[in-house]
Design goal:
299 residues, globular
Length: 299
Amino acid sequence: MKPVIGGQAIIEGVMMQNGDRIAVAVRRQSDGEILIRPLPSRFRFKKLGRIPFLRGLFRLYDMMSLGLRALNLSTELAFPEDEQMGKGGTFVTFAIAIIIAICAFMILPLYLTGFIPGLTSGNSIVFNLVEGFIRMGFFFVYLFAISRMKDIHRVFQYHGAEHKVVYTYEADEALTVENARKHTTLHPRCGTAFLMTVFVIAILIFSLAGNPPLVIKILSRLLLLPVVAGVSYEALRFSGKNYDRWWVKALAQPGLWLQKLTTAEPDDDMLEVAIASMERVLMSESAAEQLAESATEIT
């Protein structure tokens, strides 16, 4: 059985992952050369990551940590002449981004929903349904706004390139630009689909907390976030394994629609970078080590 390979768009490149084998491929902006580097996996919760409903939370932590390291490495490779942000600066920036996200996509929708007459003391399912729609509305507007930014649009193009190359690999086709170009940029195993699943499951799980005062609502949301992440991961995992069933495809469709905001058609240069990353994670370990040693000697 073929291994499942996933990836992530990064700064001017693509990260691909095949189990513990991870590669970052980036096009250096000064001369256009494609640079490929291995990235240690450093998965810290392998045993806990196998327990259903717990593994989603730990898997999410591992992927966020890996994603941050991949972004840092891609920036160093793509813009070696520029001053780079240290690990401490990256951590602070990420922590601030998490706090802003919690305020904008959790606390603010909750606060605004409380102003709607009859909802604060009414049915908890109705309250959470309205709150969920407000939260999704904020998120859609946010994605649409950042997709208009030039630098973010390029990341979204690399996101599309990653999906096209993954499709090419899954179809047992030769990894060429011509083969990758014809595939869609929308993939059911994308992290964007996970976010849509989170939105829906959050409405259901948050409803279990009833309709208490605002402060208790906020605390309950924060405490239930790990539960939401765990259940959402299991749902995404199930849909990925059973995507050939019509009803699973129907349920997964909103996640694919959302990807129209987070992916864009890549150019051929971007497909070349994604292919280089895919080829590296498909190499034998000995061949990959020899290439890594050669790259170290050159640099």
